Amino acid sequence: MSSLEERDVGVAAAPGSSSAGLGVGAVGAALEAVAGVAAMQEEVGIRREGPESDPDEPPKKRVKIPEGEAGKLEERLYSVLCCTVCLDLPKASVYQCTNGHLMCAGCFIHLLADSRLKEEQATCPNCRCEISKNLCCRNLAVEKAVSELPTDCTFCLKQFPRSSLERHQKEECQDRVTQCKYKRIGCPWQGPFHELPAHESECSHPTKTGTELMGILGEMDQSHRRDMQLYNSIFSLLCYEKIGFTEVQFRPYRTDDFITRLYYETPRFTVLNQTWVLKARVNDSERNPNLSCKRTLSFQLILKSKVNSALECSFLLLKGPYDDVRIKPVIHHHSFSNDTNETDYVPLPISDSVECNKLLAAKNINLRLFIFQIQK
After folding, report:
1. N or C: which end of the chain has fewer CB within 10 A?
2. Are residues 169 and 154 in contact, defined by beta-carbon separation less than 8 angstroms?
3. What pLDDT, on the 0 to 100 scale, is given for residue 71?
């Protein structure tokens, strides 16, 4: 019996393994698939023992698995273990509803965010039972089973277990895309890893004159200065005399319009002896943000105290100490007075819509606000 068969049978019948997380339907279908293939192999006397495939064999000449063997089993397992929303195999965490239906992490968070936007209770798309972060749990058995299923390498097209694919594509694959070591002095070449030694032995960049290299390094220095400008600005702000920060919690609310819109607001808080409020909105108050796949959050800072003179401040938002959302800091400036006590709405600098869905799916959004008062 081959190692692939042993792994398939081991997943279905390992002693002491827990099948509660898979759900009755998923375990039954997986066991039925394994038993069906085993019976078929005993009936027709299939034997897959033989020499391993040559690693140097061209990708297009890979041996096609006959119908009715492991290929059939893998396809049946794909249909059992796939996400009920996107119908694809999960790449990371797997969640299940109370009836055992599976959802990948991205689809699960997207469903929770949609329910927040529509002011409805999130439900499983298969059985319509209620779902939430408290009602649903991760299914570790399915996550481990999916990690053992084979998949093709993007570069060499050979098959590997999903658990080892990332390491293969980053470190081992001879066809992975790589760059010349002289990229630091301007070489634009990139290609398969097995062609790298031949290119580097013929690369013309090490023989360039000092004048040519100075021009290339000058462009790289400009790019580096742009990247460092933000951090230098933050370091300068940290030298100010009056600096305040606090953890803020955005809570969801609905407008009183005929078509209600979701917005977020914090309770009043005190920083630098002044009272403030933060507000946030989704997709700049778009009418139906739940119909859009691209989602953004923008916020504004409001001064609630009365001031005798203009209060010039810089401020920025960062993630809270217990959140995993990725926020790239952006510094904003505003001169607050009794007439101009609100800033314009500015984008919350999150990386993409996935991060936005993480925030929308949560009951509250927890961030950290820094305010720097500029002395005149």
Report:
1. C
2. yes
3. 55
